[in-house]
Amino acid sequence: MRIFSKAKNNIFKITVICSLALALFIGCSRDNKAADNNSITIKGSDTMVHLTSAWSEAFMTANSNYEVSVTGGGSGTGIAALLNGTTDICMASRKMKQKELDIASQKGFNIKEIVVALDGIAVIVNPENPINEMTVEQIGKIYKGAYENWGQLGAPKEKIIVLARESSSGTYVFFQEHVLKKADYTTKARLMPATSSVIQSVSSDKWAIGYVGLGYALDAKVKVKVIAVKRDADATPVLPSSKTVKSGEYSIARPLHLYVNYDAPEVVNAFIDYCLGEEGQKIVNDSGYVTVK
Amino acid sequence: MKKIVTKEKSIKLIMLLAASTSIFIVLLIFLFLAKEAAPFIFKPGLSELFTARWVPVSFQKESFGILPLVTGSLLVTIIATLIAVPIGVCGAIYISEVATSGERRFLKPFIELLAGIPSVVIGFFGLTVLAPLVKSAFGLQTGLNALTGALLLALMAIPTIVSISEDAIRSVPKSYKEGSLALGASRLETIWKVTTPAALPGIIAASMLGMGRVVGETMAVMMVTGNAAQITASPLESVRTMTATIAAEMGEVPFGSVHYRALFCVGIVLLLLTFTINIIAQRALKKYRDI
User: N or C: which terminal CB in chain A sees fewer CB atoms within 10 Å?
Assistant: First the structure.
């Protein structure tokens, strides 16, 4: 009898634990829809996490009653989250695709696009590579697989190691559209899971070529060489910098966006106004990006 | 008394439920994968899967051929198995038959420690230490290739192979060894011609389980294989595995798109592959228990 009463006790405990766990689960799944009155969730482009975190910290210091949480995952992840209603603001380093806009209108969302900063994409090679400048077309040919040897560009005859980002990255799509002119990447391109892996590989592999955001390239200046890009064969080569990106002289640059719903709560609009305001744009400059104003 | 019987029955039922959760969950996973992947059969059609191009993001034409991913996974797995099995089995024989008890006490915990290192840490080690080594050893331009991935995976499979093989070798009845020694065989002959063959089904099972670990490993391979989706048999080329593809692309993919369905198809193929490997391992283990 003793044993059974003990067993009964255990069953009771298990039941209590299970129901508590269940309650917790239901509770959590209910409030993942974010956006109460005072909190904002932001999700999306890994490129923009650093910048948006800086904004949100400054914003929270200025308005202590608000709470902002920022997570990365890639532009596509952020857009998916916005369309699923699990985030208030989506950061995206590319424009929304038609497919995604269609899903938005199907779900009855009315989505607003705000350009908050500009970013130049730097093409990098190993410091020992003799090449200093290339045209956009030449870079495109390397990534398309038309050029497979540095010899074709007037450098020593060595095989080109092509490094790209994973296809989930906004940079991948932007580069494909503006440098490859919408052609497919060569199947030999190595798709790196993170910007830091691209820099790591270019700095250690003598004949590699890669691309990274301007901010990252400036930080890694000692380890890699930034290529000066020519718009076409006759143009002057331009190195990426805040100045040349803003003036439009540097040709591989992109706008960074925030996407929100038109009927977003007041606090979301306050945050966006802050980003576009004087203080917000100063943060853009400090983070290695280029201001929009 | 009747009360006790019902209690006993209910407890038995609860334990049965607990024991069958894993079957239930495996079934659920299968159903879920199948449900998410199914629309792929109707829209681009299954034949799309058997093409040789994996180009999920394109302005021209998206293409979801999983052949480069399957061959990538197979190449890495085969090389890793070829490296890990001899090392693992020799290690197991040494630990169970040759080593003194002091050596055993020293070796075993370290091998088990190796099993406990998180794969992302191993991947980081691969990226910064192993890849440059492979690069200079083979005179390559970059160390991001199938071989580096396979070496890392071998490292992760060895503990599994060693500990299960060792169990198998140790459980060979003592009478076999004594008989062999009594007939005048040397210790080495006994190990190679009696003990190891008797433990062979267990060793095969160990190798298959190690292989299962290799096929399913994600993070370490994603960091060092370079992830280029090309069909190649050369270990010094970059390959893209099925696991790395799912991990890298699942986050971005628009819910319900063809790409999303294709990733679930990749998941099913991967699951079937590990399932087959596990079944072979189970069969081998069963045979060895029957002896």
Answer: N
